[in-house]
Design goal:
alpha+beta, D-Maltodextrin-Binding Protein, domain 2, five-stranded mixed sheet, globular, disordered N terminus
Length: 495
């Protein structure tokens, strides 16, 4: 069998039990943000700023640059304030890694974690919980890690040999999802939109990514819904296939940063230093995406090809820190969805309330420290698209949505191509020379989403080829243009 007809990996090994552990990276849990911040805010006592605990999700690629990269590259420690009231302060920075956001919120409410990295649904729950009761555990949203304006990243996958091709095919079966996660909100909304009653039509259970992946491999569940990066990781590893992409909802999604407000008020320069570290890590990724992707694989166990798929040029997610209208809409939509599903008990909470739970000042101050602006960082993220010269025919790459990419096994640079046709011609040359691709990417013609070439749908219009995520989109375009829908195996016969 042609090795290009399956996911591009020399071996498909399930490492879920090791790399997706629900255990902690850190060891001790330091309760350093008490409820007496009002007396220290603005004063010279910086003792409560010395112990800093950050909750992240190493396997969630959207948090990896602001989480694992900041941690492993020691960027935060370099940026921590060391003058004024912080002079001679003996900092102790602790990190914990979880498989979803809710455990981070629990620790933040207990004063054991000060800074939390999580998806939009867990983030709004975090913000709401902090305002319950006396409000002493109040948190604020201070920046975005990565986002998708249309919901790409969340997905529903089924076992590789499943006959299911749509959500409707899951009726009567068991579907798992990490409860309280961004994917939980996504799948609840998707099933509701499809007219599927989660109380009557199927069984919805909570499973962490590691457990969900194992259940798929053992055919113990009909489907698993999850967040970044598992909707792409599981298919890449060859034991699952995607039947629903969050992008089909058209609803923005994000991962971002919340902080205990009492800690932030008492230690504003520390929080600014963390945001500065996130910006530094972002820029390191922009400059060397293959290198950082490979490092993130070492730190998280997530294949570098999948990391690159999400955050590399023309990736599934924008690596950008801003809190602007699209991010606010993502947070508002999360509250609206949770309310409609009866998951928010306080009836007085309204989606628009989240706009009052935002604090941009730490991000703005961090950008200023780096002699840049938030606007410049936003533009950098949006401009991070495939460009330059075609590695096969030296033509200019003028349309990122039509570009192709090949990452050869063992090489440290991804090769870019102006079209799928040029890309498959290059593949033939690599094969002649005994070189094996670890991954081949194309992009959805309509939206620009990065796709695995071997699972994409293509339309051939007399030798001009375009790619699509969804077969329905490919069929519609073929009918409109007079083209023919083909798969990747057929595409490889070109040239």
């Amino acid at each position: 069998m042609n090795n290009l007809s399956r996911p591009f990996k020399k071996t498909i090994v399930s490492r879920l039990g090791v790399i997706l552990s629900t255990g902690l990276v850190g060891t001790s849990l330091l309760a350093c943000a008490g409820n007496d911040s009002a007396s220290t805010s603005g004063g010279e006592d910086a003792s409560m700023c010395a112990n800093i605990h950050i909750g992240t999700q190493d396997q969630v690629i959207n948090t990896a640059v602001g989480g694992a990269a900041v941690r492993e590259l020691k960027v935060f420690e370099e940026n921590l304030p060391k003058d004024g009231k912080y002079k001679d302060l003996d900092y102790k920075v602790e990190w914990s890694s979880y498989t979803s956001g809710p455990p981070i919120t629990n620790k933040m409410m207990a004063g054991q974690i000060q800074i939390g990295l999580m998806g939009d649904f867990p983030a709004v729950i975090n913000l709401i919980k902090g305002r319950e009761g006396s409000g002493d555990t109040k948190t604020v949203f201070i920046g975005t890690l990565a986002y998708s304006p249309n919901g790409a990243g969340n997905a529903v996958v089924v076992p590789i040999d499943s006959d299911a091709t749509s959500l409707a095919d899951l009726k009567g079966g068991t579907v798992s999802v990490p409860f309280g996660s961004a994917a939980h909100g996504m799948v609840l909304k998707a099933l509701k939109d499809e007219g599927i009653d989660t109380e009557k039509d199927l069984t919805l259970i909570s499973q962490a990514p590691a457990v969900g992946g194992s259940s798929l491999q053992k055919n113990q569940i009909e489907a698993h819904a999850d967040f970044v990066p598992f909707g792409e990781l599981f298919p890449y590893r060859g034991f699952a296939k995607k039947i629903f992409d969050g992008a089909q909802t058209g609803v923005p999604t994000l991962h971002g940063i919340t902080v205990r407000e009492d800690f932030a008020k008492a230690c504003p320069e520390v929080v600014t230093a963390f945001m500065e570290s996130v910006l530094v890590a972002n820029n390191k990724f922009f400059d060397s995406p293959e290198v950082i992707s490979a490092q993130i694989e070492e730190w998280s166990g997530i294949d570098k090809e999948v990391v690159y798929m999400f955050l590399g040029p023309s990736g599934l997610q924008y690596l950008s820190p801003e809190i602007e209208e699209v991010q606010l809409q993502a947070l508002e939509n999360s509250i609206a969805t949770l309310k409609s599903l009866g998951k928010i008990e306080n009836e007085n909470i309204q989606p628009s309330d989240v706009r009052g739970w935002i604090d941009n000042t730490y991000l703005e101050n961090a950008a200023a420290k780096l002699n840049t602006t938030v606007a410049e960082q936003i533009e950098k993220g949006k401009a991070y698209q495939i460009s330059g010269t075609d590695a096969f025919d030296n033509s200019q790459i003028t349309n990122p949505k039509n570009a192709g990419q090949i990452w050869i096994e063992g090489e440290d640079k991804v090769q870019n191509y102006s079209s799928p046709v040029s890309m498959v011609k290059a593949l033939k040359e690599f094969e002649k020379n005994g070189k094996t691709p670890s991954v081949v990417f194309v992009h959805d013609m309509n939206k620009g989403w990065k796709l695995f070439a071997n699972t994409a749908f293509f339309v051939d219009n007399n030798g001009t080829v375009t790619a699509f995520l969804l077969k329905d989109d490919a069929d519609a375009y073929a009918q409109k243009s007079g083209g023919k829908v083909i798969d990747f195996t057929q595409l490889q016969t070109f040239g």
